[in-house]
Amino acid sequence: MTLYDVAKRAGVAVGTVRKALGGDSTVRPYILERVQKAARDLDYQPNLVAQALKQKALPLVPISIQDLDQVFFGSLATHLSRNLVEAGMEPALCFDPEHLLRMSRSFSTRASLLAAVFDEAVIRPLAKRQKLVAIITRMRPIPNVGAIEVDFESVYRHAVDVLLAMGRRRIAFFSPFYVRASALGWYEPKGAALRTRLGEDGLDLVGPAPQPVFRTAAEFGAWLDERPGTIDVLFCGNDMEAAHAVGVLAARRRRTPNDVLVIGCDNNFVLPGMWTVTLDTAVLAKDAVDLLQRLLAGERVVEPQVYVPKLVDDRGVPVEAPSAGKRESASDREKRS
Fold it and tell me: 147 with 159, same domain?
């Protein structure tokens, strides 16, 4: 179907159809309604290539997502795509920022979204050509780039405050990504925040040397076998890793939270007794697309938009520090379990 078919069905000129479907406010409401009905009846879909020739850019928005096989990133990709479609744009998933850069150059896109670790050297050339929004943890201001900054530092510092107030000081971290990020020189905010806050009390993460972070659930289990009682809290990079850790504990007849409190991240797979750091992908996606639309409308955005995750228990209730002077006893742990 073409514009001519829609025009014939609606009984108006092709130019009127073009204006109506292009959002021209001069089109009278009753004409707009006729054109929209004709387009629906004929299942008319705009030709993106034709639009690109006219606008010199496709209404295509490449999205670079870090790990689609993870529940959190898969959910984020879904919500970003839905919000883009609702805003009249077409999403296109990319494997990494380099892939996004190639796609943007090939199709002359006007905007892109990033939810991945990236090198500024890759992003800066792209930002000169189009508008970008990055869902990130830390980034220096770059022209044409808006940022949704996830403040992991605040929530992980809060978590350590809560645990120390409960008397839990033997804190460990299980995160394959942290190990990989460290090897590549990437900034990993969760482990960094944990080690910084613990260091303020003269503590550090419990774990293997030289980098006290567990790379696998099996490594965590071996540590428990060789050094029982040396860990009473285990932070994990995401909820699936946390679930694996709970399984490791169960195989050794240890429970969470009584023996080891397991804390995940993402709030998409929380087992009884676990805590998690909750991230709402629907909110993050909506904020990112809203910010992208503001940039496309010509607004100059400099300051990042901050999203602060929350620490919650297995019922979704925010976890706060116990009252001053109170420590968690063994009986308290038994009651909570």
Answer: no
**For the residues 31-57, what does the mean pLDDT come to?**
71
Rg of the chain over Cα atoms, rounded to whole angstroms, equals 25
- Distance CA(111)–CA(292), nearest Å, equals 8
pLDDT for the residue 311: 96
CB burial string 117-135: b at 16+ within 10 A, e below: bbeeebbeebbebbbbbbb
Q: How far apart are CA 262 and CA 337, in angstroms?
A: 13
Question: Which H helix or E strand runs over 137?
Answer: none
pTM for this prediction:
0.77
Q: DSSP assignment of 204-264, as one string?
A: --BSSSSS--BSSHHHHHHHHHHSTTS-SEEEESSHHHHHHHHHHHHHTT--TTTT-EEEE
Q: What is the pLDDT of residues 164-210, one digit of tens each?
A: 999 999 999 999 988 888 888 878 889 999 999 999 999 999 999 88
Indicate if 202 and 165 belong to the same structural domain. yes
